[in-house]
Amino acid sequence: MKFEMTPGEILAAARAPEPGDEGYDPFDAFDQAQGAEHSINPYEVYNELLAQCPVHRGSVSEMLGAVSVSDLMAGDRQIVNVLSYDGVEAVLRDGATFSSAGYAESMGLVMGHTILEMDEPEHGQYRKLIQQAFTRREMERWEHDIVNPVLDHYINAFIDRGRADLVHELMFVFPVHVIAIALGLPEADLPAFYRRAVEITNMASQIERGFAASQWLYDFLEPVVEGRRADPQEDLISILAHAELDGQRLTNDEIIAFCRLLLPAGAETTYRAASNMMVGLLSDPAQLEAVRADRSLVSAAVEEALRWEAPLTGISRTATADAVVEGIEIQAGTAVNTSLGSANHDPSRWDDPERFDIFRQPKSHIAFATGPHLCLGIHLARMEMRAVLEHLLDRLPGLRLDPDSEAPEIAGLAFRAPATLPVIWDV
Ligand code: HEM
């Protein structure tokens, strides 16, 4: 794959002020929104509450002293928080009692009607149509054709310097680039696509810009979808435009809503997960060296990172009927927050859960959810995390934290990641 623009050029063009909107930079706005919940460590609170009871009445803000997206989603409804691994698993597996339709009032306003807010049977039909594009085998092709070249392109830009901020120069940008290529977008459109991707991802803090980005993406993608219907190429939009099940095809609105969803669901989560993984490894050089010496440990590092610091700490459902979870009664209509972060630190399942330890006995975690809405991009996410770790180990000898910078800190309530990750290596 050939690239015409350097990463620096792509980012500079994406950040360039727009007429009438000087002084606004979507990347800075995103960084600032992240800083808003900077000092909160939810795990201490989860631990305390979980020790008392696996299910708590009340909002996340009451629990943690901060405003959370899931509270906003709940509106006036009663809220419960499910904290234990078994409780979270039970709720997420029972899509009939615990509906996803509530997303229509939050994410749906910006994304359109996506798979995320569908219940059965609509969800299953739609998922069957889309998942053909995300099989493990298809991801092997993506790895070779898209992910590896994109990673090399970004690393080439800083490799001779001997130092970089891995969050800003690699993790934040490469997953969006991968999605743009997978969708079949021309490289010249990448800066504009990046800009809107950041704005749609930042919608919780700047909703008006989220709406504008959503409309921009519609106007931008609709002719592409029409073009692919007439003249299919080897890309995701073509697959979606021609996917057929029992004579049913996806409409333009459905395809565009799905493409929009890929930005927060596919790019933001991956950047956070990959950054968290590198914080875990770089903060414990013995574990990093173990992975460097024995690459069969790469998958263990990926899974432990997802357990240790799930990039998305919670997801919400609405009870459609009275139910009982972990012995606690939940009334119909209640907003049910399942805490993936707390479940992944449940001490009845993992010893010393706060410790990052790639040598743990393998046990499934719940960072990708479970049940009908199990992450559709699970193979892509794992492959991207493995690939970025392999590239960093292969290409940056002696990779370590920059001793002149402060130790990185993973922060955030609903979404977790370090703000920066300064590293050095031997050149
Ligand atoms: C480490 C990275 C990732 C994590 C931790 C993650 C996590 C999740 C979680 C927790 C859900 C369930 C949401 C809910 O039901 O409320 C989900 C769903 C989803 N994810 Fe991911 N995700 C990641 C990467 C990706 C990627 C790379 C893609 C790109 C294809 C993707 C696409 C989706 C889609 C389309 C859904 C909706 C599935 C459905 O509703 O049936 N995700 N993800």
Estimated radius of gyration: 21 Å
CATH superfamily: Cytochrome P450
What is the percent of helical residues? Answer: 40-55%
Strand order of the largest sheet: 1-2-10-7-3
Number of strands: 14
Distance between the termini: 26 Å
Strand content: 5-15%
Q: Taking all residues together, what is the mean pLDDT?
A: 91
Q: Which fold does the CATH topology refer to?
A: Cytochrome p450
What is the 3D shape? Answer: globular
Per DSSP, the total helix count is 19
Polypeptide structure, described:
The protein has helices at 7-15, 26-35, 42-52, 60-64, 69-74, 85-93, 107-111, 122-131, 136-158, 166-171, 174-183, 190-201, 207-230, 236-242, 252-282, 285-293, 298-308, 340-343, 378-395; strands spanning 55-57, 79-82, 98-99, 163-165, 244-245, 248-249, 314-319, 323-325, 328-330, 335-339, 400-401, 410-411, 417-418, 422-424. It is an alpha+beta fold and 427 residues long. It has a single domain, classed as Cytochrome p450 (Orthogonal Bundle). The mean pLDDT is 91. The site of protoporphyrin IX containing FE has 24 residues, from helix 15 and helix 19. Protoporphyrin IX containing FE binds at residues 100, 115-116, 127, 134, 261-262, 265-266, 269-270, 273, 311-312, 315, 367-369, 373, 375-377, 380-381.
Short account of what is shown:
Helices cover 52% and strands 10% of the residues. The chain is an alpha+beta fold and 427 residues long. The strands form five sheets. It has a five-stranded mixed beta sheet with strand order 1-2-10-7-3. Strands 4-14-11 form a three-stranded antiparallel beta sheet.
